[in-house]
Amino acid sequence: MSHPDILLIGHVTRDLVGADPQSHYRLGGTVSFGAVTAVRLGRAPTVVTRAAASTDLSALPAEAEVMALPSPATTTFANVYTEQGRVQYCHAQALPIRSSDIAGRLRRPRAVLLGPLVDEIGPDMAGVFADETLVVAAPQGWMRRWDDAGRVYSKRWDDAGGILSRLDVVVLSEEDIEHDLSRLDPFLERVPLVVVTASREGSTLVQRGAGGAIVKTRIPPRPAEEVDPTGAGDVFATAFMIRLEETGDPVASARFANVAASFGVEHAGMGGIPDRETILAYMQERPFGVVPGVP
Question: Which of 58, 139, 208, 227 has its CA 20 to 30 A from that of 75?
C-alpha cells in the first residue's frame, strides 16, 4: 500500500450527551473530527487510534482508513458548557498509542496531526516521521490533569522539550494555556510556528521574526451562530494543517481554518463541517485583512 496522505493519531472518544457516565454518546476526539474534515476537504485520512471493540466507529467516514488498536476501554468525556466556559470530565481512558504502532509506510505521510487527549501519545512519537512530513500537534492531551471525580483541569506541559524540537507547528487554544500567552515561550524556543485559537475571536499566529523578536498576527473570525462548539479546535487544526501543506502560507491557512471551524460549530456533532468549495467561496466573497502586531 502507498504512504498515507493525511495521518491522524490519537484516541477516538465516547462524548457523553450529558454529564452522567451512563448517558448515550456521540463519537468524538481530535482524530474523528479530523477524519471528517480531511474527507470534506478532498483528502484521504488514515486514523490510528485505540478503542474497545464494542465502540461504534460508524461515524468515521467510509473514505478513511481506520486502524483501531485494541483496548479494554474507550476514552470517555463529558463536556458541560456554561457561561464561564467548558467544564469537562474524563470517565475512562484507552491504552496508549506507542511509536512502535506507527511503522513502515505510516511514517511517511504528507502531513501528520498528533492529537492526544489523555497523554496517550509518547514523547518519542514526533520523531519517527520522515523529514518531508509536515508534523503538527494539537497538544491539549499533554496539558490536562483530572481529579478523582474526573473533573479536567489545565496543567503546564513541563516535559514538552523532547517533543517540541520535532514539531513544525503547534495548534492550541487560549483555554489550553489558561489565557496566559507567556506560557507559549518554551514552545517558541523550539517550534517555528504556534497557532492560538480564541473561539469567537478567531486565531493568532505566533512566530519568531528577525533577531528573535516575537511576531503575532491576528486572523479575524467568520461570525457564526454557535450550536455545538465541541470539536471546533480539531476542525481548525486539521484544516490548517491541510491548507498549510498545500500552500505553505500560514496566514491564508489560518483564515481557511477559521472559516472551516466556524461552519462546524453551527451544527451538532460533525454534521456541519464544510467542504472545500464552501470555505473557498466564503473567502472569495469576503476578503479580509490581518491584524499584525497583536500585543
Answer: 227
Per-residue cell: 20: 452522567
157-194 per-residue burial string, b: 16 or more CB within 10 A, e: under 16: beebeebbebbbbbbbbbbbbeeebebbeebbeebebb
Phi and psi for 15 in degrees, rounded to 5? Answer: -95, 110
- CA–CA separation, 47 and 31 (whole Å): 7
pLDDT at 84: 64
CA dist 118 → 154, 184, 224, 264 (Å): 12, 21, 29, 24
Given a cut of 70, the residues of the chain with pLDDT beneath it are 1, 18-23, 83-85, 289-295
How far apart CA 219 and CA 89 sit, in angstroms, is 31
Domain ranges of the chain: 6-292
CB 57 within 8 A of CB 67: no
Q: What length is written for the chain?
A: 295
CA distance 218 to 196: 9
Q: State pLDDT tens for residues 192-219.
A: 999 999 988 899 999 887 777 888 999 9
How high is the pLDDT of residue 22?
Answer: 57
Q: For domain 6-292, is the CATH number 3.30.70.1250?
A: no
